[in-house]
Design a protein that fits this description.
It contains nine helices and five strands. With 215 residues, it is an alpha/beta fold. The strands form two sheets. Strands 3-4-5 form a three-stranded parallel β-sheet. Helix 7 links the parallel strand 4 and strand 5. Helix 3 runs parallel beside helix 4 and helix 6 runs parallel beside helix 7. The two termini are 39 Å apart. This is Tetrapyrrole biosynthesis uroporphyrinogen III synthase domain-containing protein.
Length: 215
Amino acid sequence: MRAVREKLEEIGLDVRAFAGLKIAAVGGVTADALREMGLEPDLLPTGEQSAKGLLEVWPPYDDVLDPINGVFLPRADIATDTLVAGLQEMGWEVDDVTAYRTVRAAPPAVEIRDAIKQGDYDAVVFTSSSTVRNLVGIAGKPHPTTVVACIGPATAKTAEDHGLTVSVLADEASSAALVDALADYGHRLRAAALEAGEDVRRPSDKRPAGRRKAR
């Protein structure tokens, strides 16, 4: 939404340009961004917050009720064609516009790459499919002992397609829900370990004084 707002400002328009249009959002985060602009979404997924979830509640085109069958769809350049294809199958004409491009980050330092591969991180958090592809591309796969947490089903599938085991999946596609899900998973692991009589101290807490794990 930030890219759309910036483009409107660039051409001298504001949210009044959306007057008379129905607005759909793929999930809660997008809906909140719309509300910050003063726009209330008319359509939101009732189940899975994804392109698939939005298609489940999107009505098919009706030439009596909908004299105009055009849908303006601003999205990332790497987004899947799920929504476009689904809308077209229901009779809608989609104006598919690239609103922003995702650029791969520079590879992290060697020490960070080694830490990722060796399991020095307790968890890795993925907030989109592109974060999965980019991390694996520039740093390699996280160690099997690292907990993999994903923001939604599409991201989880991408992680699994890259050979990762997803242990945590957010209830809804938001950063807050993802953090809560990861924290809940950690609490459950700790409770299970305590019940089994295992030592739940962190490795760094078990080392004798004067010894520290190399970073």
